Amino acid sequence: MDSNCITLIFSGIVAFSTLVYAILTWKLVKETKIMRKSQIEPYIVAYLDVAESRADIVFLKIKNIGPGVAKNVVFTIIKDIDYKEAIPLKKFGYFSDGIAYFPPEHEDKFLLFSLQEGNTKAKLDDYITIRIAYNNIFKELHETIFNLRIKEVMGKSDLTPPDSYFGQIAFRLKNIEKLIEAKN
Question: Is 27 exposed, middle or buried, given 0-12, 13-18 or 19+ CB atoms closer than 10 A?
């Protein structure tokens, strides 16, 4: 083989390697951009939960589980709770007016009702549908609809003693208080 042919083959290999390297670099840049954006994306969720000390008390919780700030949060109550013992969510300024700023890991909770009062069957068959729309720091709109069924929180029970540190402190203090009252 003459030297021109060998030079041409090596030049082709170098050109091909450069092309592969450019494609891999482009993919890496694209992936890095996605990763950087995910580190500042908010993600607001709505869910139902019960009180730690009383499993019959139902709360609606709104939490930003994403690492980014949510701005201009707007709530649209599509299907509200509807029975005598409960306060409709539409009456809360929080849901009707929205929120300008919702930081990461922030959580708000709203007492809905107690399952021991009133018509428990009607409450268990009920649900809440809420649409949450918000912007990230780039003013990109995100929106999610949550269909929260009350019966999904049934079956949760209170632990004695509670499983959280503060719950255990309260439990122990309550027992100490009972012992002191019994001695008096």
Answer: exposed
DSSP at 67: S
The CA distance from 106 to 41, in Å, is 14
In 3D, which of 75, 69, 73, 79 has the Cα closest to residue 92? 75
* DSSP secondary structure code for residue 101 in this structure: E
184 token code pair: 């008096």
| The model scores a pTM over 0.90 | no
Residue 103 tokens read as 């930081």
What would the two tokens of residue 118 be? Answer: 């009133």
Q: What is the pLDDT of residues 22-60, one digit of tens each?
A: 999 999 999 998 888 888 899 999 999 988 777 778 899
pLDDT digits (tens, 9 = 90+) for 51-80: 877 777 889 999 999 999 999 999 999 999
Whether the CB-CB separation of 113 and 86 falls below 8 Å is answered with: yes
SS3 assignment, position 56: coil
Q: Which residue, chain included where needed, has tokens 């809360």?
A: 92
